[in-house]
Amino acid sequence: MKIYGQILALAAFAGLVAGCGVTGGDKLRNENKNLKEQVAALQAQLDEAIAERHAADSLADEILSVYEENEDKNYTQEEMDSLLNLWYLHRQSGSTESLLAAETEKFSSNVPDSVFIKRLASINSFITLPYNETVRNYMIMYAEKMPSRMASMLSLAEYYFPIIEETLDAYNMPLELKYMAIIESALNPTAVSRVRAKGMWQFMYSTARSYGLKINSYVDERFDPVKSVDAAARYMKDAYDIFGDWSLAISAYNCGFGNVSKAIRRAGKSDFWSIYPYLPRETRGYMPAFVGAMYAFNFYKEHGIRPEASPLPPHVDTFYIKKNLHFKQITEVVGVPEDDLRNLNPQYIKEIIPGNEGTSILRIPSKFSSSFIEYEDSVYRYKAAEIFSPATLSDIHDGASRDYERVVYKVKSGDYLGKIASKYHVTVAQIKKWNGLRSNNLRVGQRLEIYPGGRGPVKSTSEKKATVSTEKKKDTAGSATTSGEYTIYKVKSGDTLSKIASNYPGISAKNIMDFNGMKNSKISVGQKLKIPRK
Question: What pLDDT score does 33 carry?
């Protein structure tokens, strides 16, 4: 924020000059004028730089286009973890329960306005909580239209809200900002958007790095519930330092500082409801949704909602790890369930804690702490040569685990390769290579395979198909079919991912999950899995 520092310094000096009481100095007046012009110029540069840097961080920029691109997609339950994904789903189905509908339709409720107003006024909030028809719609939306989703979020909040509150308190920020995590990701620490914004706070790669989050072959701290909220708090603090209003800072988190600055200039005022008509349409509902979520979390009982049992352990201990350690070693020696390790340590994307690269954090349920301490030396030694084989580590460092994510983009009128490439942070050459295109010509309705961020397969779609068709053959074991890139394995009774992986040197259960796009380790008899070839 170098430009922002320059602005503060110049503005302070300009104010000092202006207030020094000198009456006869044309030179001082001219100098003061020049300083003000420099401040204005730097502010314009700041607005432009921040807008460019943070535009990709907002899922709001993608809400309308993602729906159009996925109009015939069947969504899975996992993809509903983000409330914004719920938004896409309900728009597609025409349901009146969509968040977008909350801006334009009037929901009915048996609760009278007077009760809503009284309840909202009773919430001890540092951030102003207005009441109007738009806010009322979102209050009804969260409190009455999605009871199962609210029950799930309430259970997650038991674990995550104390973490978020502790960080906000450390930065002397309103604790109510914790409800932004509801709007961003429904408290899902591993949420991934279509443009690969990741984590509970939905950071894009570049902004995550600029706010100090570590991202490498082993770790993605956007998924770390502690590190990511710290970055989000600093991001919001930057917004508040610029706008001086938490409602505007919250809106800026969604659509970027540049869009809020533009709305302020157009409105000629700097309060949320004055700039409301000038904000991007999808951002207008962000602050009202924030109020609606806060209301629902405070008065869910009055609406007959009961929290689900929390999937996370009530008590957790933290250990500092200084050697490489795999989740499998902890599970098989100490007995900590793999799901607990994944849920408590989602930042370790390969299930490896890279202690060799520096001290790393491990969180485990407290009931296993004494066993971990007692058998710690044995844990590190258990199958270490096999788990940390040079081939496995090399594959991880080279990014050979094929953890890229594919988007199928449907070409619309007015599209061209450069526009599409910019949207997904890739190059025109990459799109052409992935799709076997020999020219830049596109046709409306054409479907393109795109790998946001540029992490896609080496071969084009046409080359892969040719490879599979020419190299496919039956394995002698009869239970698997091999191709040039993978083996198809048919799951048998008694199989587990770890057991299957053990039959393929250099392959881990996580490799299989990544290669098959699996969200968890559950498999069923008869299921066909692609086993990547090393």
Answer: 67
